[in-house]
Predict the structure.
Amino acid sequence: VAQPTAKVFEQALSKVQPAWMQLDGMLKQAGDRQERSLAQLAVRKQLASRLAFELVSRKDASDAPVAIKQFLMGQWSLVLARAQLHPQFPRDEQRYEYVVSLLLWSVSVRRAGVRKALLVELMPNLMQALRVGLASIEYPQGNVDAFLLELKKLHEVVLSADVVDDDAEDTDPPDPPSEADLSDMMMLGSSSPPARTPPAPPSYQSDLNLL
């Protein structure tokens, strides 16, 4: 059997080298993307840490249940950080900040307890807004369901509380910011969301500029 010559080896090598070079390029691009992703995640966590302190320092968070404070400091601070750095839809940041105000109002016996009809009316939109926000950070669905079940129990406490209406000004639910209510979130979380093109993510440098 004739042995392959050096020329045969050279010809075979010349055919596979472009494929190897292409693979090397793909691996480098994947590595660069992963590195940028990790850097952006670190920036998001740093921003979330700052936002977490601001959230629990709010006046309307003073009487919030511990579970709600922990949620705001944990998952929702990441939602807000992502909305600031990489909004998926217009007005994400304003909408998610409004969710904070509405959530804190909804679990306050003193405030929502005298506006029970409004609480019942607003609960579906609030629940859907929480689902959409948590989906933006890929929070596990099982954990989302567990939190919403806990929130439902807190709402039941408010609805069953015997509270006297003292006409206090802060018993009304918060007003949504201009053009940033929660109604469109009912569509965003449906099986057929409206066709919108999310804006392109800002650069890593723009992430840093927000800190």
User: Anything to note?
Assistant: The CA atoms of residues 142 and 202 lie 31 Å apart. Residues 187-211 have pLDDT under 50 and may be disordered.
